[in-house]
């Protein structure tokens, strides 16, 4: 499932700490989180297939 970046950014609660940081850091964090989530999804699919 791919979401447009705008949708993802809008869905982030502005009260979270991510908005208190410089935008670049927030983008890196978001990217790291997306990578982590995609790995979790892949692992879950792999386990389901076994």
Report what the structure shows.
This protein has two helices and no strands. The chain is mostly helical and about 50 residues long. It has one domain (about 5-50). The two termini are about 20 Å apart. The mean pLDDT is about 75.
Describe the protein's topology.
Blueprint: H1 5-11, H2 23-49
Low-confidence stretches: none
Q: What's the main sheet like?
A: none
Average pLDDT? 76
| SSE sequence, one letter per element | HH
Helix content: 55-70%
Q: How many structurally independent domains?
A: 1
User: Into which percentage range does the β-strand content fall?
Assistant: under 5%
What is the count of DSSP helices, taking H or I runs of 4+ residues? 2
Q: Helix/strand/pairing class, anyone?
A: mainly alpha
Distance, first to last CA: 22 Å
- Strand tally is 0
Shape: elongated
Q: What Rg is obtained from the alpha carbons, in whole angstroms?
A: 13 Å
Give a nutshell description of this structure.
The chain has 50 residues and is mainly α.
What characteristics describe this protein?
50 residues, mainly alpha, 68% helix, 0% strand
